[in-house]
Amino acid sequence: MAFTLLRYGYPGRRHGQRPPNNRANRPEVITRRALIVGNYDAGKSINEISRLMGISKTTVRLWIRRYEGEGHVMTRPRSGRPKVTSQDDEDRLIAAARQSPKTTAVSWTRELQLPCHPITTRRRLQEAGLDCQVPAVKEQLTEANKLARLTFAQQYVQHDINFWENVIFTDEKSFSSVAATGRHCWRLPNTRYKARNISERSRSGRVSVSFNGWMWAAGPGELEWQIPEKTLEAIERKAQEVWESIRPRPNICTNLVNSMPSRLQGVIEAQGGWTKY
């Protein structure tokens, strides 16, 4: 006997409830429940539907009452298992994450004596809006460094591109081995360059190689080396190769110079601290 299947929607979900899994709301399951209602609307009794479909009369009554009372035959949301962590546990965890964002979930679980697995700890952090990201690695900045950066930025921020196109930029750089730093950081979105989320480079004192280079808007200058005798020649050759690869592409230097106003403005906004550059 033909009958019309009605449109069925999810019932409203209360706070703390979770939707049923996909298995409970598979299309064939919903279709079978709708068939119960369709047969009932077609005039069949509960006993007849039970015999026809090979299901218990209790099940037939359940879905007929569900449809008459709530207008659907979907599986209701379920309360689920209670959280293993208390509100106090979660508050302590979030406070610790904001104080020391580069600590691991395993360490927090152990140090805070949380009654859960580190996977659950990570889930609570994510629920609070904290994402596990690779921290930005920056040079160490003392208060004197920040003040000098801020002073320089405030002094030159008003200059336009024409000014910067006639400036020669030069610096000496020393590459050295560094100690390992935290590989991940739990932070809120758009807070990558906040002081607590920065991974500062720490110097070991074992300098590998130093050089002095310069550039301007038209391209790079020459690379001058200060290399200890024990330094491998391969390092020098590779660095020189990379430096010279910039020369045929002057747009790299041009773009860097053209970004000076934005860079200075970023330093001012960060009060001399780190920026995205």
TrEMBL record:
Domain Transposase Tc1-like as annotated: residue spans: 91-157
Gene3D superfamilies to which the protein is assigned, alphabetical: Ribonuclease H-like superfamily/Ribonuclease H, Winged helix-like DNA-binding domain superfamily/Winged helix DNA-binding domain
Family annotation (InterPro entries): Homeodomain-like_sf, RNaseH_sf, Transposase_5, Transposase_Tc1-like, WH-like_DNA-bd_sf
GO BP term (any one): DNA transposition
Chief subcellular location: nucleus
A matching Pfam family: HTH_29
Record-given protein name: Transposase Tc1-like domain-containing protein
CC terms in the record's Gene Ontology section: nucleus
A GO molecular-function descriptor: DNA binding
Superkingdom of origin: Eukaryota
Location(s) in or outside the cell: Nucleus
